[in-house]
Design goal:
- The chain is built from six helices and 14 strands.
- The chain is α+β, with helices and mostly antiparallel strands.
- The strands form three sheets. It has a six-stranded mixed beta sheet with strand order 1-2-3-14-7-4, with no helix packed on it.
- The longest helix is centred in the middle third of the chain and has 13 residues.
- It starts with 9 loop residues before the first strand and ends with a strand.
């Protein structure tokens, strides 16, 4: 089953190495991606009113941490792949080089989330858990949430083994002798089943692994490649 988001955000290039994700969230939300040649340490200089940026440890799981007050500890939040907050001035960030960066926003409750979703996280239902966490913590209405998916490896490049058919069902296709998996479609399907309106989901349409891609990719370049830093914050 093919599932596609109905709109696309604009990845607008700003200072070298900074792409802003525009056209999908209210003006009080700032979101984007930092890549080469920008340095992660300079991220706050690009973000007016953002005083701190918090990262998830990223363990390829489905655990979520809520940042409920200003946090001075700069160490990554242990044991999680997603962060939520309603605290102004606090940025949330994840690193990726093929996995899905998922941006979330509740315009009514003024809360945001940032998630790192690889195939293991998707099998564990991370998108479903994200929506449930918004409902529990912020009393969000799922159909009011806005979601964007940033650059990630796509079915054009993500070749997998036969064991993925049991994990992802119809999101695995075999064509011309190549078995590929549509992780983006699987994520969007979970979000839709959790109640997020298709009209409020956007997909960057960018594949990290394509040969012409400007993004880092473990599949294309190996484990020693760099990492993109995706971020979201309440101004």
């Amino acid at each position: 089953m093919a599932v596609a988001a109905t709109e696309r955000p604009i990845l607008r290039e700003g200072p070298p190495g900074l792409w802003r994700l525009t056209g999908w969230a209210p003006s009080w939300v700032t979101a984007g991606i930092v890549g080469p040649p920008a340095e992660y340490s300079r991220l706050i200089t690009y973000l007016p009113a953002v005083r701190r940026v918090i990262q998830a440890e990223q363990v390829h799981g489905s655990s979520i941490a809520a940042i409920q007050q200003a946090r001075e500890d700069t160490r990554p939040v242990a044991g999680c792949d997603a962060l939520l907050t309603s605290v102004p001035g606090t940025g949330l960030a994840i690193r990726s080089a093929d996995c899905l960066p998922i941006f979330l926003c509740d315009p009514r409750r003024r809360a945001v989330g940032m998630a790192h979703a690889g195939w293991r996280g998707l099998v564990a239902g991370l998108p479903l858990r994200l929506v449930a966490a918004f409902r529990h913590l912020y009393h969000s209405v799922p159909s009011a949430l806005r979601v964007a998916i940033g650059p990630a490896i796509r079915s054009c490049c993500y070749e997998v083994g036969p064991e993925f058919e049991a994990r992802f069902g119809s999101f695995v296709q075999v064509r011309d002798g190549r078995r590929t998996c549509d992780l983006i479609g699987a994520a969007i399907d979970q979000l839709r089943r959790a109640g997020v309106a298709p009209s409020r989901m956007v997909d960057s349409g960018q594949c990290t692994s394509c040969s012409s891609s400007p993004w880092y990719s473990i599949r294309r370049e190996g484990q020693d490649t760099g990492r993109l830093l995706s971020f979201i914050a309440i101004r």
